[in-house]
Amino acid sequence: MNNTSFAQKKWNLMECVEYAWQHNLTVKTADVQEMYSEATLKQAKLSRIPNANFSTATGYNLGRNINPSTNTYIDLNNLSQSFGLNLDATIFNWNRIKNNILAQELENKASLADVDKAKNDVALNVATAYLQALLAIEQVRIVRVQVQQDSAQLYTVRKRVDAGAVPELDALQLESQLALDSSNLITAKSTAELNLIQLKSLMNLDFATPFEIDVPPVEIIPVEPIASLQPEDVYNLALTNQPAQKANQLRLDSKQAASKSSKANLYPTISAFGNFNTRFSNPATMITGAKLNGYGTNGDYVVIDPANPASAQPVYSPDYTVLQENRTFAQYWDGWGTQFTGNFGQNLGINIAVPIFSGYTARTNYERSKIDIKNQQVVIEQADQKLKQDIYTAYTNAVAALQKFNSSKVSVDVSQKTYDYAQKRHEIGLLNTYDLITSQNNLARAKLDLANAQYDYVFKMKVLEFYKGMGLRLQ
């Protein structure tokens, strides 16, 4: 939405709240935490799937080394390659994985409740700022009327001064009052602007953006009867509808499931495993043939006639040279398929891991998980107690605000009658200007007090309605 569109519309309360839900940084932070919780839950669920790891290595060995295919020493450079696949799957672990998944599911639901709580808090803060802005706008209206009255009275009195009916002092007193009320009007306008800035801040709306709010008459803002907002009834409803209470209970359930998961580490775990591997190796040179160099004797003789030593004949053997040449890169891989198949090995089995002693780690973790449960129970008790205190305080404040509002209405009625009477007396010269100004100021003060009391009453009642789960509505 561009600045022109913003300038053309007037925002009502729910539009401000919904915009804040999308852009407020507190809500965004809660959303990020929920995404983190969602990722943790996903990882917990995937832990049920067997583990699988594939490995491969290719190397070139120089000098004297072990041929990985024959496991014998050779004095030739050679190329080797190996492949391995390792699998393991948990068969039974006393529901450790199941309870861990349950714990993470409950924690994720608690994170979602945290997002709702952040939205509730932001909505209440926006409503507070919105009502303060409405009050400031009403105060501007009251003070502006006061300035208009001052101007009208000054005009009338100035004519009477010029006619010699009243002294110059009367006009000067009204000029002084007009200056004072004009200053008050400037202050009221500044306060109204500051309240709108505060509202923009809560909405995370750019401060330079044109912004105007809808101003419903305060008299038509719906308010529940105080009799239907009894604190004990509101508290019982709040226990079930407030996101903070839901999140606390979900975290207690999560910690109980986590404790069961931790306890499973005290017992044996049964798992299955499988290993599959193969290897390949070829020397850097290969035999291409042999070259016959001739025949020679090595000192051995064969006796033809044992009775005749002279019959001994020498033994001749061929003398040849083995012809070799370096393999090309393509020739390095000769026989790869044959070796891959011939060297293929498998290993399958069942593993039973029995915890005997691990520095008391498993037992300590289990004891800590039980302490976490007790701590969360205390957190719930504290939060519920604080909620009850807040509701009873809000109810007391609402009752006081209602009484003050009713009293302020009486004060305005009396001040209005007093001012009307004073104005009539002033017109016929039976009341001096100073007393008229005093009566006028009393009326203005009473109207401002009434506006404060009325908006304060509306806000206090809206807080109670909010705790009751009725949401926020001004129309």
TrEMBL record:
Short name of any one Pfam family annotated for the protein: OEP
GO cellular component: cell outer membrane; efflux pump complex
Keywords tagged on the record: Cell outer membrane, Membrane, Transmembrane, Transmembrane beta strand, Transport
Superkingdom per UniProt: Bacteria
InterPro entries noted in UniProt: OMP_efflux (IPR003423), TolC-like (IPR051906)
Family indicated by similarity: Belongs to the outer membrane factor (OMF) (TC 1.B.17) family.
Name by which UniProt lists this protein: TolC family protein
Species, as recorded: Pinibacter aurantiacus
